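Review form for a predicted model. The reviewer records the input and the model, then writes brief findings.
Reviewer: anonymous (R2)
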Amino acid sequence: MQRMMGLVRRCIEDYRMIEPGDRIAVGVSGGKDSLTLLTLLAALREYVPYSYDLTAITIDMGLGGMDFSPVARLCERLGVPYSRVETEIGPIIFEHRKENNPCSLCAKMRRGALNQALLEQGFSKVALGHHYDDAVETFLMSLLFEGRIGCFEPVTYLDRTGVTQIRPMLYLTEGMVRTFAAEHDLPVVHNPCPADKHTKRQEIKELVAVLSKTYPDLKARVFGAMQRLPLPQWGVTPHPRGSQKQLHQHDGCKAGQAEKADDAGRGRGDGDIEPGQGREQIDKAEQDCAAERVDAQLPEPAQRRGQQPHEQKHGGDGKCNG
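Model under review:
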């Protein structure tokens, strides 16, 4: 878990996502991504020299067949307050409107419900579970389907609501999240959405998988390009612990190499790794990167060191174009 927390902490610092005293809500859908984010942010509170409050909020779409009681028990174990907001988003989209392309409207309605819940509970910052693969896929979706170069931003300020969205898992690949969720037996809730696995995002995910067999560094190069260009708000903020710009370079990145190993362990590699050898390759990748990023290792918990929380040196309100 410490390796994952180290990458999340680095992402938070690179993009100034959390300030001392922040009250942060985690949008918890019940999927592996949001549950992993919740678990990591809850654990990270013991390791950073500043304090922040967490709560977890679920927007229940009213689709039926979704039991969130295991999520509530997880939150209780983590010491994080939990609330579930019941809505009729699912029936409105699939029964009343019968949308042929429901994802866009669904996303807008869920965001609206979540933002409303945040404001009612007095929160102005929400953590979302987008990861490394999500960023690459969103970039390619914008390019191929909309003819524009763009992606969601690591930190997004919504000026109409005053809510700031942060995405602390951008340095974690989907394979890393999948493995973490399985190893920690997170209570993933089955998604009964009729459109699940039949979306434009799924098309891009499959396209990337095919292209990666020929161009194994594809995702690392796309992600690195977004930081180096950079896209709006994707430029990495310099800080005392060093720059993160090398994290996803194709020739030495833990996420990229671990991703290849994860694919190989599932029989999807590029032929350099035998199926079943994924864990060994992940360990090798971590060793190769350790020398370059020693500072990514977490210190002892602040409480055990007797340190008092203190203000971060950097300021900034994380504002982005809303």
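Findings: The first strand starts at residue 23 and ends at 27.
Further findings: The chain has twelve helices and six strands.
Recommendation: see findings above.
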